[in-house]
Write a structure and sequence with these properties.
Keywords: Cell membrane, Membrane, Transmembrane, Transmembrane helix. The protein is mostly helical. The protein is 73% helix and 1% strand.
Length: 306
C-alpha cells in the first residue's frame, strides 16, 4: 500500500506547482482589489513563450521560466491598462485576455508541435531525502517545485509581516482612504497585477518545460480557472491556498495512477475529477457567507480612478 501511496503523494507536489504559482499571483492581485479572470490566458501565453525560449535557445527550463514570467507580465499589463487606467470592467477584460491567450498560444505553438525538451531531473536534498517516507515525498522534487514553496513563504511573509502587505490590504479594502493619505493606488494595483501575471506565466512555463516538456495546444487545460477558484477556496489566505493546491494536485495525479492500477472507472470520469472537486469545494465554501465576507477585499473588482 505504502509503495503505491508514496508516488501519488510525490506526484501531488509537482502537479500542484503550477496551481501554487498562478494562485499566489492571483491572490496578491485580488488583495489589492483587482480580480483578473485572465489567469488561464496568461498561463497559456507563459507556456508557449517559455517553451519557445527553451526550444530555440537550448537552455531548457532555465531559459523557459523567465521567458514565461515576462510574457505573463506583459499580458497582465494589457489587462491593467484597460481595467485600471481606463476603468473598463475587470471581469470582461479578464475573459477577453483568456480568449486572446488561447488563440495566441495556438497560433505560435503550431510551429513547436513536434518539439520536445529534456525537462528537469529531481533534486535530492542531502540528509533530508533519507527520512523514511517523507524524504521521498518532499525532498526528491525538481527545483521549480521547491521554488514554488519558497514563493509561498515569501508571499506569506510579505502579506502578514511587512508594511507592503498592510498597504496592499488597505488599497484593496478602501482605495479612497489609501489615496487620501498619499498612497499611489493605481501604481500599487499595477504592481500587484503584473506580479500576478508573472506568476501565472511561470506556472504555464513550468507545465510546458518541466512537468510535460512538450507543446500541446491548450495544455493548461483549465488550471487557470482552478487557480482562481483556489483563491476563493482559501479565502485569500496563502497557507490555505497551498493546501488547496495540494488537494487538487492530488486529485489530478490520482486519476493517472487509478488508470495505471486498472481501477474500473471510466476514463472520462477520472479526467473530470479535478473540475468536479472544484465545483464541490466552491459550493461548500460559498455556504459560509460569514467567512467569505470577513476575508473578501471590499473593493474587489470595482473600478477606481483618482
Amino acid at each position: 500500500m505504502l509503495e503505491h501511496l508514496i508516488p501519488v503523494l510525490a506526484g501531488t507536489l509537482a502537479a500542484a506547482t503550477p496551481l501554487i504559482f498562478a494562485g499566489l499571483g492571483e491572490l496578491v492581485a485580488e488583495r489589492s482589489g483587482v480580480i483578473n479572470l485572465g489567469v488561464e490566458g496568461m498561463m497559456l501565453i507563459g507556456a508557449i513563450a517559455g517553451f519557445a525560449a527553451a526550444a530555440d535557445s537550448g537552455g531548457g527550463a532555465l531559459a523557459g521560466l523567465p521567458a514565461g514570467a515576462v510574457a505573463g507580465a506583459l499580458a497582465a499589463l494589457v489587462f491593467a491598462v484597460l481595467s485600471l487606467s481606463m476603468a473598463a470592467n475587470q471581469a470582461a477584460c479578464g475573459l477577453a485576455l483568456t480568449i486572446f491567450g488561447i488563440g495566441l498560444s495556438a497560433f505560435i505553438g503550431q510551429h513547436y508541435v513536434s518539439f520536445s525538451l529534456p525537462g528537469l531531473q529531481p533534486l535530492d536534498i542531502p540528509g533530508l531525502v533519507d527520512i523514511p517516507v517523507l524524504g521521498r515525498i518532499f525532498f526528491h522534487q525538481d527545483a521549480v517545485t521547491y521554488l514554488a514553496l519558497i514563493s509561498f513563504g515569501i508571499v506569506w511573509w510579505v502579506l502578514r509581516k511587512t508594511r507592503l502587505g498592510l498597504i496592499l490590504k488597505a488599497v484593496g479594502e478602501a482605495p479612497d482612504a489609501a489615496h487620501a493619505i498619499g498612497y499611489p493606488v493605481i501604481a500599487i494595483r499595477y504592481g500587484a497585477t503584473l506580479f500576478g501575471g508573472a506568476m501565472a506565466g511561470m506556472g504555464g512555463a513550468y507545465l510546458s518545460t518541466v512537468y510535460t516538456p512538450l507543446w500541446v495546444q491548450n495544455m493548461v487545460a483549465g488550471r487557470g480557472w482552478i487557480a482562481i477558484a483556489l483563491v476563493v477556496f482559501a479565502t485569500w489566505n496563502p497557507t490555505r491556498l497551498v493546501l488547496g493546491a495540494w488537494l487538487f494536485g492530488g486529485v489530478t495525479i490520482l486519476q493517472f495512477h487509478a488508470q495505471g492500477l486498472g481501477i474500473a472507472v471510466p476514463v472520462q470520469l477520472l479526467a473530470a475529477l479535478p473540475y468536479l472537486a472544484t465545483v464541490v469545494v466552491l459550493v461548500l465554501i460559498s455556504r459560509d457567507k460569514r467567512l467569505l465576507q470577513l476575508n473578501l477585499p471590499a473593493s474587489l473588482g470595482k473600478p477606481w480612478l483618482p
